Amino acid sequence: MSKIVIAIDGYSSCGKSTTAKAVAARMGYGYIDTGAMYRAVSLFFTQEHVALSNPREVVSALENIHITFNFNQRTGRNETCLNGLNVEEEIRKMYISNIVSEVSAIPEVRRAMVAQQKKMGRRRGVVMDGRDIGTKVFPDAEVKVFMTADTYIRARRRQRELLEKGELVNLEDIIKNIEKRDLIDTTRAESPLVQAPDATLLDTSHMTIEEQVDWVIQQADQRI
Ligand code: C5P
Fold it and tell me: Where primarily located (predicted)?
């Protein structure tokens, strides 16, 4: 059976990653969380005090960043590693969410990440989630999904996720963060978040994760 690429793009906190991960597991495909890559870059830039407005500093910092995903047998989870260190927990914190859209709008950052993502998916058989997968990274993806959901519902989901990890964040702050990220992501000059003309829109406001997963798998089944 031929292997395909499944691109899941959309707004922040619509359930893209959870859905993508489960689809990949059910299909025996690899899963690549491209948002985690931009988060890891943001963490490195913060740690190294990189001036975001200085392209030379940005390019030289990017040369020292190596991002990998390790599958943890014990937890059954994919963990993001930055230069060999597990940063999975750190990159999900609010202080990273608050800067990641500015970092990911930098053209040099996008170029470096997109090149890596193309390489990671070159053998196909991957589910990749992000903001520009169907438009820029894999414009030839066989399945393209564009996810959206009501902002309040997204914020509640995000708040629950953060709480499960021990971080208590005010709902208003989460709504502000989601709206700010969506605005930067949709209006940036370099590959802004936009629905690819051949992507199917999925509003997850009133869907369970299981329903979302089944829906994507149905789309995939029609193209294999
Ligand atoms: O998917 P997640 O919400 O973790 O992504 C964090 C941020 O990374 C997004 O808000 C967006 O600014 C950026 N991003 C991006 N392109 C991608 C994936 C994420 O610009 N392909």
Answer: cytoplasm
